[in-house]
Design goal:
- By secondary structure, this protein is mostly beta strands.
- Helix content is 0%, strand content 73%.
- It has strands spanning 2-11, 18-30, 41-55, 58-75, 83-99.
- A five-stranded antiparallel sheet has the order 1-2-3-4-5, with no helix packed on it.
- Strand 4 and strand 5 form a beta hairpin.
- The two termini are 29 Å apart.
């Protein structure tokens, strides 16, 4: 799966070097697999982190979040009709990034 999403962030100004922030990613997961039984679904990823400035124009971002993603799965049973059930994929995530 790949995702198309919006990323909203709010930074708390508490000092000159370290800025805590909260974020919310929300969007839609798109399957990249050729399996016709899988389809895309909504995705949401809330979390929090720290932006640490190492100089005036360079910062490191550390964050921890938890991703919820819907993955509808179509099941074909020859004895019954086709059914679709929704699996929720849930996973923690850790991000490390640079900003300049």
């Amino acid at each position: 799966f790949t995702s198309v999403f919006a990323d909203a962030r709010y930074c708390f100004v508490l000092g000159d070097i370290i800025f805590p922030f909260a974020f919310l990613d929300a969007g839609y997961a798109i399957p990249v697999d050729v399996d016709p039984l899988l389809s895309g679904g909504p995705m949401i990823n809330p979390g929090a982190g720290l932006k640490i400035f190492l100089s005036r124009s360079f910062a490191v971002n550390l964050s921890l979040g938890y991703r919820f993603q819907s993955m509808p799965l179509t099941e074909n049973d020859p004895t019954t009709s086709t059914t679709t059930r929704t699996n929720w994929i849930q996973s923690p995530n850790f991000r490390l990034g640079i900003q300049f």
